[in-house]
# Entry
Amino acid sequence: MTRWTDTGDGLPSFDLQLKDIPDGTLTGNLDGSFDMRGDIEGPVTLALTLDGLLEDDGQGGTQRVPGSTAVRGTATGPSGGVYAIDLQL
# Structure
């Protein structure tokens, strides 16, 4: 398990927009530095974008459409290595 904490460089930026609820879209960005502890150790800078679809859950609420959410971007590790992130959830 990896635990994220603020690195002291200020809070990460997280912008999330939900549009046309209940049947619409979600878009957003997560940018900032995190101190990773666990399987990955040290400061990591994330630059991620998120996008996906929303749907009516049939009970008066809204839920994410399974399989429609993409998380893409990079993670820059403490040694300067840049790792691509491309997830479909």
